[in-house]
Design brief:
The chain is built from no helices and eleven strands. It is mainly β and 124 residues long. Strands 1, 2, 3, 4, 5, 6, 7, 8, 9, 10 and 11 form an eleven-stranded mixed beta sheet that branches. It is globular and about 40 Å long. It starts with a strand and ends with a strand.
């Protein structure tokens, strides 16, 4: 499986973007997928995770009122819809696929594939 994130760009505060994580390979639907972001000078952090069939998902508390993760396995694509963007959302956003598991929420227990990131810049 190869992953490619796209959809980033420059957006004004309050704007919206939809990121796509497109996958090659017929086994993509077997994997849970997560979106991560890394701001300049900071560690990469998880943003959202979705189960292999889209039946359950998790978005971190800091953005859960503004970001939504979804997937279309027929299109081999996972999306991250981002609204009401803030300057602090500026980061490189990457997607990863792996084995999902559950405790209080779905999470990636292991990661098998990483995609190249896409830059999101929120600035006026």
């Amino acid at each position: 499986v190869q992953l490619q994130a796209s959809g980033g760009g420059l957006v004004q505060p309050g704007g919206s973007l939809r990121l796509s994580c497109a996958a090659s390979g017929r086994t993509f639907s077997r994997y849970a997928v997560g979106w991560f972001r890394q701001a300049p000078g900071q560690e990469r952090k998880i943003v959202a995770v979705i189960s292999w069939n889209g039946g359950t998902s998790y978005v971190v508390d800091s953005v859960k009122d503004r970001f939504t993760i979804s997937r279309d396995n027929a299109q081999n694509t996972v999306y991250l819809q981002m609204t009401s963007l803030k300057p602090e959302d500026t980061a490189v956003y990457s997607c990863a696929a792996g084995t999902g598991d559950y405790n209080d929420h779905v999470y990636l227990r292991s990661i098998d594939f990483w995609g190249k990131g896409t830059q999101v810049t929120v600035s006026s």
